[in-house]
Specification:
357 residues; alpha/beta; single chain; 7-stranded mixed beta sheet; binds pyridoxal-5'-phosphate
């Protein structure tokens, strides 16, 4: 199978080889050293400030989203939540669950965030801005300069879910004034699922200090205290943290984050060129390098997903809910090559020849 979904994605050989090894005991100086290197490399690749910190939470990306909300926001906050799809909706539900007052900017599927969407919130006593930089469900990549300017002007605490865009599109945490950056191990980090990575600005660290977290397992005070010595409060997904280490070193050796973003952009552009002439429409106003969301004009998206899986041995990424039959996505993160896309495009062309699409 070739995997073109947006997570879990394909891992490099070095990362897979670690998955086959015994999981070592972790309360050791060696594992602490590895964790401190993980922190340094994530900080570097996120362009976080020197006095930022990074923690690794055992759980998928959503654990990082909930950890951020529970550890830095309180009912005294007033948040703006961008909701352009299922991941934005998840933040809405998290604010409801944790009783964080909020207003929602609801964007229709595929639509970009524009200055007029934010105008009514200017100078209205909001404290916090919560956004998924890339709304993976619809493939819309938001304008972070617009968001950053708005937050700086209104002195807002800025939580950014970068789960599918970290390492795929540019992100400069310090310049943007972002306070929390969240990513997950199974997206562009191209490791198995199970670890959520969070970078925290000094302002975020202060909020953590001042906020009572009503969950012991996801209490960032404990995670940060332990991370000072390269450890975690509980047994983490040790094997995945070792794989993340190998992957971060791989990116560093291949030219760093800029080179990785360039590589991903090249794959995305190659695929988008190759599908010209096929009965697919790109349905996002603002694309990330991580994924191409497509509307097939002549067949059901889900039927195409099933055909490609069952008859051609490849996974493209289906959509759920009311987009099940109208949209599928093709991912560009993970260990993929142009030759992989040639196979996918050949399969699409074959389906076209057979009159299926
Ligand atoms: C994948 C993803 C998540 C996290 O999903 P998990 O299944 O919990 O890992 C959150 N936000 C975005 C934007 C994502 O792409």
């Amino acid at each position: 199978m070739i995997n073109f979904t947006v997570g879990p994605v394909q891992s490099s050989e070095a990362v897979r080889a670690i998955g086959a090894e015994q999981v070592p005991y972790f309360r050791t100086a060696e594992f602490s050293q590895l964790m401190l290197e993980n922190e340094t490399l994530v900080k570097k690749f996120a362009y976080a400030s020197e006095d930022s910190r990074v923690v690794f939470i055992t759980g998928s990306g959503s654990a990082g989203m909930e950890t951020a909300i529970m550890n830095t926001l309180t009912p005294k906050d007033k948040a703006i939540v961008i909701n352009g799809g299922s991941f934005g909706h998840r933040f809405v539900e998290l604010c409801e669950l944790h009783e964080i007052p909020f207003s929602e900017v609801k964007l229709p599927a595929g639509k970009a965030l524009k200055p007029e969407h934010l105008k009514e919130f200017e100078g209205k006593g909001y404290t916090t801005f919560v956004v998924n930089k890339h709304e993976t469900s619809t493939g819309v990549h938001y304008d972070m300069d617009l968001i950053s300017d708005f937050c700086k002007r209104n002195n807002l605490f800025l939580i950014v879910d970068c789960i599918s865009t970290f390492l795929a599109d540019p992100f400069h945490m310090e310049e943007l004034g972002a306070d929390i950056m969240i990513t997950g191990s199974q997206k562009a980090l191209a490791c198995p699922p199970g670890i959520s990575v969070m970078a925290l600005s000094p302002r975020a660290l202060k909020r953590v200090e001042e906020t009572k977290c009503k969950c012991q397992y996801l209490d960032l005070k404990l995670a940060l205290k332990n991370a000072e010595r390269g450890q975690t409060p509980w047994t983490p997904a040790v094997g995945i943290l070792r794989q993340i280490h190998a992957r971060l070193l791989e990116i560093k050796a291949n030219g760093g984050v800029e080179a990785e973003i360039k590589r991903t952009a090249a794959l995305a552009n190659y695929f988008r060129e190759q599908i010209k002439g096929l009965p697919f429409e790109i349905v996002s106003e603002s694309l990330s390098n991580a994924v191409t969301p497509l509307h097939p004009t002549t067949a059901s998206a889900n039927d195409i997903f099933l055909k490609i899986k069952d008859e051609y041995g490849m996974w493209i990424c289906p959509n759920g809910g009311d987009m099940k039959d109208t949209i599928f996505r093709v991912g560009h993160i993970g260990a993929l090559t142009n030759a992989d896309y040639d196979k996918l495009v050949d399969a699409f062309k074959d389906l076209q020849k057979k009159g299926f699409i």
